[in-house]
Amino acid sequence: MLDKLRTLTISTPFVAVLVFIVVIELPLFGLDLYWQRQVMLIAVYTLVCSGLNLSFGYAGELALGQVAVFAAGAYVAAILYNEGYTDILLAIGAAVVVAAVAGLVSGIPGLRLSHWSLALVSFFFILLIPSMVSIFHGVTGGSAGLPGIIGPTLFGRVLYGPEFFQVTIALTFIWMIIFRNMVVSRFGTILRVLSASPTLTETLGGSVYRLRVQAYVIGALPAGIAGVFYTYMAGFISPESFTMTLTIALLAATVLGGADSVWGAPVGAAILVLGPLQAASFERYSVAAYGVFLIVVGIALSAGLAGIARRVITKLDRRYLARPSQIKSVEAEASLAVLSIPGQRLEVRGVTKAFAGLKALNGVDLTVEPGTITAIIGANGAGKTTLLNAVSGVLHPDAGTIQLDGVDLVGLKANKVARLGVGRTFQTPLIPKRMTVLEVVETGRLRHGGLNLIAAILRLPVHYRVRRKDREAALAALSFAGLAHLAHEDAQSLPLGTRRLLEVVRAVAGEPHVLLLDEPAAGLDDEGLRELDLLMRRTRDSGGTVVLVEHNVPFVMETADQVFAMELGTVIASGPPEVVRRDRRVIDSYLGRRGDPSTEVVSTAASSADANETGAG
Amino acid sequence: MTVVWAGLSVGAVYALIAIGYNITMTFGGTFNFAHGALVVLAGFFTWFVVVEQGMPWWAAALSGAVLGALVAVVEELVAIRPVINKDSHALLVTTVGALVVIEGVLMATWGDEPRSVPFFGGQESFTLLGGRISPVDVWLIVIAVGVGVGFHLFARRSLWGLAARGATSDPDAAKVRGINVAALRTGSFALAGALAGLLGPVLVPKTGASVGITITLTVFGFVALAVGGFGSFLGSIVGGMVIGLVQAFGNRYLGVEYPPLLLFGLLLLILLLKPSGLFGQRGVRTV
């Protein structure tokens, strides 16, 4: 019973539905017109803020032009009304189209460079408001504004007072559910990955540029809708309603509520409408106060009120409701699923790559057969990581070919390479914040199938099917490595070695055709090494192709079927471990002149672990 | 020709703002969103010193330079240094916050009414090369070109410029070689702030002092920067002049409401077709 209640309150928007039902009935309980307007204003700002949540909070793009999109929506509604089209749904549709166009026009060029250019391109929108209003003064009323826009219709029925209130609240709520469904889906997950690391996003199969454009454009839509409600609520609009100060106030409300949360938006909006900054005595300093507030929040990088709420809930949850039974059921599910990892042949021919004249790769040739574990060893600077980066598309070689099962990978973007089936890990584990171990592993699945945004919004069966499949594969990969018991732990707080292992698990969950591991054993204790060994063998035994770059020579010699030794950007020896171990050049350049690898290895492995601790890679 | 002079002089204002952006970018590796606000601050301060206090223009210039440097350094220490190593997410919010704080303080202190300050070099316009031009316009154009060329040479020739170029292209490598990246950044903010303050008495007769122009200066200065190329001081001059000419000719032949649209289109085109700008180096794409 308690368990059910817990799932209901935490994993579903149940509480929000309750609040909505209460709010929409408020006029029946005698809420007067003034307060109805205040609540509607909260709804309007909620829409604008929720858009900022998506573009800024989740995708990390500062859409300073949100108010201009809001203004565009407002003018669209007003102009349609004056032309005799009073239907509110029609106005919303038109506003959404205008918002999408505005988002695309500014987002496609603005997102090509870094965050700043989008912030400024969208900021420019605010400057365009007075221009547009005066160019089209025939329909916009110029700076005098448009009065008398009262009583929209819905399917031919005029909406007055409480009815308009209820429609506004209901439609706002529908958007919030849509927004919530988008965020609680693959789309929201990959946006969280994106804000943690663009490189990781690409290697998981997500196009950073496309995701940024998507999040930014979708974030503009609710602002357009908000404009429609605002027009009908105020009954009058003029360019003066849409200022830079409003932009800043809404941004402050967004970060106060919690920029990367769904339900932070209404809270922030409510504080903006009802809070202390509205007091007349405070007005003079309000702009300065918003600015100070933005700096403070930025420095503390707090997750706003939503972050505080999340911490409280987690604490209560851990204390009173945590159930060991849940973890058991996780293990039971895991044993049912089986991963299929169809390995493919990786061929690298004559690959070169120079950095500022220095040849990091100088004609590398190697072939990796499916169903094997292949290790690449060599001193620091031999070009091992550069080679992995070239294969995974993170950087592009100057010459040479790289083929996976006959398909050319050179020149493809990292996300394409990932989608073709190259999975990889990093020297410094990239684990996004505030994700459980299970969620992190599930992100490894993103390369299979699209984001299915529509299915996620409507919660179609396909959405649940994909989610179930993701979960099963993730659990299977976790139990491959013996980590299933950690499934519900916070991934970032795990020790370094476990996080490194978790990266491998995440890549395995994606069922890659070739798995590239960048120094996975560094910093692992004996148990960790055993788990890693187990995971790699199981991956190989299910047909997978594993390539690892590693300094821990005893580990390599024991696990690998084939070893390539690199020096100064070329392969100097290759073959089964025992052959490479005895190779004269390998001993000279890497293993040590005494010819006894076991003594040398300890220091090499230790030093590479140190290097990783300081954040190399 | 009058239109050309008008364009070049207003362009000089944008060029000087783009140069300000470039100073913190080339010497400090950081984009200062609040630079336009610093220019507005300098304008208000000039009005306060010259009109309210009745002091000479050079007093406003010198004390303005000190004030500008001070405010910029405080901005760097409070809003940038604590977050520079976190994700750019935070930096985005804090520098926007800095702009808003400066704007908010100006509004609370001097209100949102625009103020005007007469130019110390005379108000009488005269004919030059067949067009009417006023003394302040001549000063602005000469100063913008001089400052831009000066910084161009300074960035190329000076030790500071060399160290800074190393620091912005590879901060970690620079640190290893004993370059104090943080001090360079603070210094660059001080320099940009001082420049904004110093030029207050020349800029404010042209722009007027008002909080309302902050966003215009911020955005058009950025367009000048984008057109000229990020990291190029000569590009900033050209970018600023191009913006100014588009604005002046747009005003003259289409009407005052069109230039923002034209410039918006220009910005989108540049970002789409030549993101490094006309004179930009490919390396400096931190913006």
**What would you say the CATH architecture of the largest domain in chain A is?**
3-Layer(aba) Sandwich
* Average residue-wise pLDDT of chain A: 84
The CATH topology assignment of the largest domain in chain A is Rossmann fold
Summing up helix and strand content along with how strands pair, one would put the structural category of chain A as alpha/beta
Order of strands across the widest beta sheet of chain B? Answer: 1-2
Summed up, the helix count of chain B is 12
Q: What is the overall shape of chain A? A: elongated
Can you summarize the main beta sheet of chain B?
2 strands, antiparallel
Oligomer: heterodimer
- The CATH class label of the largest domain in chain A is Alpha Beta
Discrete helix count of chain A: 27
Radius of gyration of chain A: 28 Å
Helix content of chain B: over 70%
Short characterization:
The complex is a heterodimer of chains A (617) and B (287). Chain A has 617 residues and is of the alpha/beta class.
